Amino acid sequence: MEWTHLPGLAPYAETLAAMEDRVAAIAARTAPEAVWLLEHPPLYTAGTSARTEDLVAPDRFPVHVAGRGGQYTYHGPGQRVAYVMLDVGARGRDVRQFVCALENWVIDTLAEFGVRGERRTGRVGVWVTRPDKAPNIDGSVREDKIAAIGVKLRRWVSFHGISINVEPDLSHFDGIVPCGIREHGVTSLVDLGLPVTMADVDAALIATFPKHFP
Q: Which residues of the chain have pLDDT under 50?
């Protein structure tokens, strides 16, 4: 298992091409499994289920077709992206369980900072309740998304992965309907009042990883 920090703001197209090359090498058994930790410049990505009407501001940032599952999402400075290249074929060939393991990895990472992340049926990703904010129109407690998950498999090797909002500009999410969900918001660790750094999140991701991907 190889961990790599990509410096600066990683250009999306070049990083995606490098990730696909690494996935091919893992599938060919010529390279070890890998996780890349990085940040991108501000951009939107469209997953395979993206709907045109969910791109609210198409000229705001570059838009990339990602090829991963899911809909539109935002990447940018202050958001930790982890591209996860693992041999799912050797781990049971259960895609649903693999996505669940990614969500649980994020949840355990957030727990390191006292944040209770939760899954929601029908909504991929990790959510936090916001009783500190005004309730929804129906009286239910407000929920905000703090982490997105989108993966693709090729020859049973995964790529793409997760993104956790550490301290991004949350207004940048206004240019899309994140993951096609209009009735909930977006938050970050710093927005929740936690002075967490990217290095703190990286340490938590690395520490909790073996529990979910032995």
A: none
Identify which of 110, 122, 99 has the alpha carbon closest to the alpha carbon of residue 196.
110
Q: Which residues are catalytic?
A: 179
Q: Is the separation of the CB atoms in 175 and 74 below 8 Å?
A: yes
Closest CA to 40 of 61, 55, 22: 61
Angstrom CA distances, 145 to 25, 123, 165, 166, 179, stand at 34, 10, 9, 12, 10
- Contacting residues for 151 by C-beta, under 8 A, at least 6 apart: 68, 69, 84, 98, 99, 102, 158, 159, 160, 161
Region at 104 (left for phi over 0; alpha for psi -120 to 50; beta for the rest): alpha
What pLDDT is recorded for position 173? 94
What's 189's DSSP letter?
A: T
- The DSSP bridge partners found for residue 80 are 164
Structure confidence at residue 182 (pLDDT): 60
Q: Which two tokens stand for residue 101?
A: 């393991």
Name the phi and psi angles at 199, rounded to 5: -65, -35
How far is CA 57 from its chain centroid? Answer: 21
Predicted pLDDT at 183: 59
Whole-structure pTM value: 0.94
Strands (E), the chain: 2-9, 34-39, 43-46, 63-65, 72-75, 79-85, 118-120, 123-129, 143-154, 157-165, 185-186
pLDDT of residue 181: 59
